[in-house]
Amino acid sequence: MNTLRFLLIFVTFIAYGYQYEETLQLVHVFLRHGSRTPELKHSYPNDIYQLEDFQPMGWGQLTNLGKQNGYQLGKLLRGQYENFLGNIYTSDIIQATSTDFDRTKMTVLLVLAGLFPPSRSQVWDEGLSWIPIPYSFEKDEEDYHLRRVTAYCPAYVKELNKVYNSLENKQLEEDYQHVFQYIEDHVGKPIRSADDVLGIFQTLYAEQHMNLTLPKWSEIVYPEPMTYLAGLQCHYENYNSILKRLFGGRMLRKVIEQMNAKIMNTIQPTGRKIYLYSGHEYNVINIMAALNVYTPHVPKYSAAVMIELHKLQDTNQFAVKVLYARDLNNEPEMLQIPGCETICEWNKFVELTKPHVPVNYTKECDSEVYLD
Ligand SMILES: *[C@@H]1O[C@H](CO)[C@@H](O)[C@H](O)[C@H]1NC(C)=O
Ligand SMILES: *[C@@H]1O[C@H](CO)[C@@H](O)[C@H](O)[C@H]1NC(C)=O
After folding, report:
1. DSSP letter string, 28-92
2. 279-317: per-residue pLDDT in tens?
3. Is 52 among the catalytic positions?
4. Quick check: helix, strand or coil at residue 302?
5. Nearest C-alpha to atom 3 of ligand 1 is from which residue?
6. How do residues 199-244 score in pLDDT, each as one tens digit?
7. Whose CA, among 93, 104, 203, 222, lies 20 to 30 Å from 194?
8. Which atom of ligand 1 is nearest to the CA of 63?
9. CA-based torsion, 39, 42, 44, 49: positive or negative
């Protein structure tokens, strides 16, 4: 009896696993770079750590731990998509894109190293288990896909300012006035908003990951309530449909176009299976927000969100699944798009995401178009 039960479980497992692998069609991955040194723009006058403590990396650069993070994320993705991707790297299979920062470019290289270790036939140096895999990036000033939209989208800035001026935020600033003041007194620069707190949070978080002992004063505000306030700032940046549409929407639109090309069999190159976008915490956040699966928090270093296009075996319909690799120690978790089952049937997915997909992004960013 027991044997039969085990056999049944085993067969079910095989069948399910088989179907799962067979149905995957295309994957989009948005990831945050690995652990890094603090950024100059988020440094503060009274920090007990200065540039010399961040050498030889310098400001805002990957640490050795950060390099491990990126490589491990690549391996995690390899484990997740082993059967789908196969063992042989071809240039068609993947398109990798980064923002114009050293740390995101280095991270994408590390992820690629973990994701595509050379198959036997692709080893070209016995001492090196690595093959070069290209990636691309737009110059920061010309990056209209992954860079922060505050740099070039006036309608977004206008809407975000409305959120900052909202009663909810004014109330928050009042409630946390003593916390802001406390931090300000210790860091030696003005702390007047959740955004200012986020900057200091980033620095403390970076130093913590470098195993530097955090200053005594920080103990009563870090991790809480600073982690809460930092998460809230990220939430504000994606607070409503207009912000979601203008921030994460630009990439959501691209993701949908690419999935649609796969469905229509017009994808170029035809062997494309995965798109990788190496960016910052906000890239991970804003795509989740546009998909309505974001809950306020700051994604950890090397966190990644995966958007999978599947073909359902029984109906031949397409469907979308969203997974979140919150950290490297746990299995990626499934995120449920509100209004959908864990797997979201394609037409339903398109319908649900429509409010966050810009039609003419350039036009919508013109601050005169949105008349309140
Ligand atoms: C920090 O300390 C922990 C515990 O000793 C260690 O496992 C980890 O490798 C250290 N990390 C760095 C970046 O040195
Ligand atoms: C989008 O809007 C801009 C500015 O209003 C306009 O110049 C452009 O032609 C529009 N693009 C499309 C594809 O309609």
Report:
1. EEEEE---BPPPGGG--TT-S--GGGGTTT-TT-B-HHHHHHHHHHHHHHHHHHHHHH-S---TT
2. 999 999 999 999 999 999 999 999 999 999 999 988 889
3. no
4. coil
5. 211
6. 999 999 999 999 999 999 999 999 999 999 999 999 999 999 999 9
7. 104
8. 13
9. negative
Helices 281-290 and 249-263: crossing angle in degrees, nearest 10, is: 70
Q: Classify 126 as helix, strand or coil.
A: coil
Candidates 33, 42, 209, 310; catalytic one: 33
Three-class secondary structure of residue 371 per DSSP: coil
Active site residue 33: yes
DSSP H or E stretch at residue 353: helix 346-353
Instruction: Write phi, then psi, for 28 (nearest 5 degrees).
Output: -115, 130
Closest protein CA for atom 3 of ligand 2 = 363
Angle between helices 64-85 and 102-115 (to 10 degrees): 40
DSSP state of 141: G
Q: Which of 281, 308, 356, 364 is catalytic?
A: 281
Instruction: Output the CA 359–ligand 2 centroid distance in Å.
Output: 10
The partner residues of 345 in beta bridges, in order of sequence, read 319
DSSP 318: E
Which atom of ligand 1 approaches the CA of 209 most closely?
13
- For residue 33, report the distance from its CA to the centre of ligand 1, in Å: 18
* Tokens linked to 139: 């110059």
